[in-house]
Amino acid sequence: MTEQPQSDFRHITVKPISGALGAEIGGVDLSKPLAPEVVAEIRRALVDNLVVFFRDQDLTPDQQKTFGRMFGDLHVNSFFPQVPGHEEVQLLLKEPQHKNNIGDRWHTDVSYTRRPALGSILYAKEVPPYGGDTMFANMYLAYEALSDGMKTVLRGLRAFHSARENFAKRAAEAELPGSASGGFQHSDDVEQEASHPVIRTHPESGRDALYVNSVFTKNFEGMTREESAPLLQYLFAHLSKPEFVCRFRWQPGSLAFWDNRCTQHFAINDYHGFRRHMNRVTLLGDAPFLTERADDPAHAVA
Ligand code: SIN
Asked: What is the best residue among 80, 91, 102, 213 to mutate for testing ligand 1's pocket, by most ligand atoms within 8 Å of CB?
């Protein structure tokens, strides 16, 4: 990647913000209907850069939903509070008196369902004067940096993802006055869990990415949590190495659109005493899969 705008786009400008992932897109007003060729270029920029950012947008919840629907169907999240009248728009709100925020561990969205989120679109309504940045990590690079031996092991594994502990804890915290953000709700969906390959193939780029995360991934299939923990802990530490990461500074009107199939993100909780108000829509995805390849490390040692 270079710091120059990527030049093969005709309708938008695309400027990478780090060597790992992330690009800022210019030349488009997301509140307006977008021509199919503009949508196609945004989609290509997303697949190439994994997370894309837009500045100075002025979006109502309806306009954010319309933008999201250009890329897929919208997910209704039963844990998060919703923007009134918009069940597909999650309200991520931290008030000055709140201590906790949402998303302050590395994770990918909704991995506890059989069809985890394709992408998420987060729009900043109000941001603190400093802090509240979001970090993103490139799961292709995290996979590619592993040794052939580790790749071989991981390509043979699946892992269980569960919402139970994280969201039950969050919902309980939300009932303590002043201790939590955003009013997490109890939901029967807390019982959802799913098994996914530990390495997944991205259906559009064809590249393989690491797909375990510290919030929802509990154990490898066929192993206990205790047996799984050492390798999972290693992977959770590995996947957020600085060279795999970018960091985004929000302004009011900024919008981030990330691909959950090949990234993780982390919302930094360093702005106590200030308000941060974000609206999020999430795109439904497909069941993760892993493509076997003739040049797999697994095949090479077989
Ligand atoms: C999240 O979607 O996990 C929250 C991200 C953020 O608020 O920056």
From this structure: 102
Sorted by where each begins, the domain ranges of the chain are 13-285
Does 86 participate in catalysis according to the annotation? no
Q: State which amino acid sits at residue 98.
A: H
- Give this prediction's pTM: 0.93
Closest ligand 1 atom, residue 101 Cα: 7
Greatest alpha-carbon span in the chain: 58
Q: Which top CATH class is 13-285? A: alpha beta
Q: Where are the beta strands (DSSP E) in 111-179?
A: 119-126, 134-138, 158-162
Stretch 141-168: mean pLDDT, rounded? 93
Question: For ligand 1, atom 8, which residue shows the shortest CA distance?
Answer: 267
Q: Whose CA is nearest to atom 7 of ligand 1?
A: 267
HSE at residue 58, side-chain half, CA atoms within 13 A, is 0
Distance from C-alpha of 96 to C-alpha of 21, rounded to nearest angstrom: 31
- Calculate how far, in angstroms, residue 20's C-alpha sits from the geometric centre of ligand 1: 19
Beta-strand relationship, 245-248 and 255-259: unpaired
Q: Confidence band (pLDDT; 50, 70, 90) for 296? A: confident
Neighbours of 4 (CB within 10 A): 8
